[in-house]
Amino acid sequence: MAPRTAPAVSANAAAVNSTFDRELEERFLRYVRLDTQSDEKSTTSPSTEKQFHLLRLLADELKAIGAEDVRLTGYGAVLATIPAMHQADGPTIALLAHVDTAPQFSGTDVKPIVHRRYRGDEIVLPDAPGVMLSPELFPYLATKVGEDIVTASGTTLLGADDKAGVAIVMTVAHHLLQNLNLPHGRIRIAFTPDEEIGRGVHPDLPEDLNADIAYTLDGADLGEIIYETFSADRADVHVQGVAIHPGHAKDKLVNALHMAAKIVDTLPHITLTPETTSGREGFIHLYEMSGTAAAANLKFILRDFELDGLREHGELLQQVCAALQAGEPRAPITCTITKQYRNMRYWLEDDMRPVELARDACRRLGIAPISPPIRGGTDGSRLTEQGVPTPNLFTGMQNIHGPQEWVSIQDMARATFVCIELVKLWSSATRETAVAHHTDERKAPLDAEVPPDWSG
Ligand SMILES: [Zn+2]
Q: pTM for the whole thing?
């Protein structure tokens, strides 16, 4: 492709109607129309065949804009390279976005609607007139007056999570490949499947990605640079009751369901649950319970920002099981705790440059950077653990996983500018000083490959 004059990246980038708006909108509207819902019950990778529709399209588009080494892996990741420009020694930076949408809400036949130059009033979705978007309910919407807001029509999610990220990464790639004067190191592009079911980082991805630093474009509000996530364990409790015909059960039957119910009842209800905690508080969350009088299973996720807290939640659950066991030795109770993922801060605080440079990029564009800790994990949690520090950057997506999902095209444009500024900033960094790897207890490897559960 012939190089073209670069649109100026300046402090005005945060203003509306940037040079990227139309490209972002055109890409975004096309991508959200493709159903790419992932399926946690599937055992294949990617979990659903339909994700390939968008993955193949993105591979073709990357080739068309001149990206190199474009490859669609068997596990459903599209990878590509933008060669270094006037800077060969710097670290390789990767930009990632995920193509799948959440299993919780329909992503079939998405009809995106552009509410151009939003006036600040209520937005009614035509296919579900009861579903309303109002600036009173969603204060962030009130800050978007004058911008182009995209919603779905009321019966599906929009899929801004994470097709806003996909459109941003594609637009950044296109811009870098068109503007050969812009200095940057080697850039890797990755579109991944199955993030919503916690399987976005295939075991081969870190090596296939072959990058020093990565950023996921999967954050929400303007200026978000996320580098603190939960640390996460899973706990599986099994109660083996004593089964016997109820007619002959006197003094013999031990009902596993009653035992399971006692465990749940003994655990704290008004503290330490997701519905009673916020901010930096952790929790013990029972998310599945099944069984018969003969045997019962309880599935928990344990979450905390600090490992001490996480350990305490696990110990509390084990103590509750042990106390029940002491009262009923005939019914064996086991409580197995498995590591899921760890707060990426434990690694990033060794070298905060991936975060600091992203903050600098925001500030240069007049955007105030914010770093709220997020009560969940991202693909970046797993990538960071595996040696590729991966903070998460804003895209503008709001009210994700439901019919009220929306995004501002101008927020997506701001994220595009931030990425371009960021790769420029990295171009003057040296690779030697890039992230030092220390070992400490918090960074102990996972016991086994357990799919993390981002729903927590
Ligand atoms: Zn997402």
A: 0.85
